[in-house]
Amino acid sequence: MYRELLMQGKLEQALYAAQEMTKDVMIGMIQQGMDYQEAWEAVRQNWILLPDEETMPILLGSDPAGWTAPENV
User: Fold this and answer.
1) Looking at the record's lineage, which domain of life comes first (predicted)?
2) Structurally, how many domains does the chain consist of?
3) Per-residue pLDDT tens for 2-30?
4) Best label site of 46, 61, 70, 72, fewest CB within 10 Å?
């Protein structure tokens, strides 16, 4: 995935999109009453420690600016 995004010139955009989604999800969790550490652990588990690309395929041709957080997070 890294190589494909890099070759397409979308790596920086994808990293920024992931950062913003992570921030938005954490803010939502904290606003719902979860403390910062719990929110970070939940986000880390769901966003940073992702399954491999075969388990969780991604459309590499898609525009990272349009990525959104999943509803069930």
Assistant:
1) Bacteria
2) 1
3) 888 889 888 888 888 888 888 888 999 99
4) 72
